[in-house]
Write a structure and sequence with these properties.
Blueprint: H1 15-20, E1 22-24, E2 30-33, E3 54-56, E4 77-79, E5 100-102, E6 125-127, E7 148-150, H2 161-164, E8 171-173, H3 185-196, H4 208-229, H5 245-249, H6 251-254
Parallel strand pairs: 2-3, 3-4, 4-5, 5-6, 6-7, 7-8
Antiparallel strand pairs: 1-2
């Protein structure tokens, strides 16, 4: 980016240009598509088109989203992915009609996510992937209508239970985060050993079929243990003659 508040060759969006970018979706909604237009600052003129249902400002160079975005009260779909945004305005919580919010591939930090996000009671999909989040605000757990949550490619070390236990959650993408490594296999093996010595009932209290099942399971476990600890056997090659026997028999012919 060049020095100063504006980026290189930032395109100025006029009201006329914006109106020409309104499209009708397959379900009859109005979408204002200003993606991939080299925009560096949020075009204030589009506030006069606040009756649109969907707004796409993705793949630009926008650094800041103003509080005035809350004027889009009918907005159900907001796509801001692939910009330079490091903070969302608190007023976003007033956009209660939102069903879809995509702010992936920006510069968002955890402090840049306002608490007011928990007011988006109708939202179903949020994507915070490819940012700089080191923790997830537990307030997102208040969004009971969430179906999909994207948290991939961040700096997260844990996911709050309030997120993973959302009642309608169908997809939670947390790939490529620096989560702690899972415990070593030895821990699991050790737990099996300890369970092997845990007796819940005595043999005399078991019915015949149950006792036989337990004995069979115990025999299998002992067999596995013996196989694991047994020394490797030497390979037996019964079909081969003793070393050099054929050579000895043919020595005279070679001489």
């Amino acid at each position: 980016m060049a020095k100063g508040g504006k980026g290189p060759k930032g395109k100025k969006i006029t009201l006329s240009v914006a109106k020409n970018c309104i499209k009708i979706t397959f379900d009859g909604k109005k979408r204002l598509d200003l993606s991939k237009m080299g925009i560096t600052t949020f075009p204030k003129c589009i506030l006069r088109l606040s009756d649109v249902d969907e707004l796409n400002l993705s793949r630009n160079m926008i650094r800041k989203i103003p509080d005035s975005i809350s004027k889009f009260q009918n907005l159900r779909w907001l796509d801001l992915h692939s910009n330079y945004i490091d903070k969302l305005p608190e007023s976003i919580g007033q956009m209660t009609s939102l069903l879809y919010l995509n702010v992936s591939n920006n510069r968002l930090t955890t402090n840049g996510l306002p608490v007011e996000l928990n007011q988006l009671k109708n939202i179903r999909t949020v994507n915070f992937g490819l940012n700089h989040l080191d923790r997830v605000p537990t307030t997102l757990g208040a969004l009971k209508e969430l179906h999909e949550v994207g948290l991939h490619d961040n700096l997260l070390s844990t996911i709050p239970n309030s997120i993973s236990k959302l009642p309608k959650l169908k997809k939670l993408n947390t790939k490529r985060n620096p989560f702690p490594k899972p415990e070593e296999p030895d821990t699991f093996i050790d737990s099996v050993k300890r369970l092997d010595n845990l007796y819940l009932v005595e043999e005399k209290d078991l019915c015949g079929p149950c006792l036989r099942k337990c004995q069979q399971a115990q025999d299998k476990l002992n067999k596995i243990k013996s196989m694991a600890t047994a020394a490797p056997r030497r390979a037996i090659f019964s079909s081969l003659v003793s070393p050099n026997s054929m050579a000895k028999e043919s020595q005279e012919d070679w001489r």
